[in-house]
Amino acid sequence: MGYQLLNVLVFTLFGIFFVVLTVSILSRLLRPRVRSEDEPGKLETYECGEPTIGSSWVRFDIRFYSLALIFLIFDVEVAFLYPWALVFKTLMNNDFGGFIFLEVMVFLCILMVGFVYCWVKGDLDWLKVKPFMREAVVEETPEPGDAAIPEEPQEVAA
Q: Whole-model pTM?
């Protein structure tokens, strides 16, 4: 029993030593420290060759992340259908076709419920409108023929 605890202690100490060595000592030795006043562009944020606009410490809206995660979830789930489609004919010949088809339909129903939930919740809307603001948005929408919307120019017959 003592020998096994000694193994755990040795590996724990090695892990702590390894982390301390790499994080504190090696990172200080390997990182670049030269800051030249001749090249101030090296300290700027790089934006794919475009001129930097504003600070790089900008808060991003959560909509970017939530929409990307929703896309990623449904994209990966749909990727699970490709292997099923490849072996479905073989499974149909082995009398498993009905059961496998039913399983895939349950899978698609679960995906559809998740999609409808995201849609109803408003996670797929880029601009979220609060419920009390919907009346204001509807009232401000001009009607066709209103002075706010310029009508299309009509051609003059020659």
A: 0.45
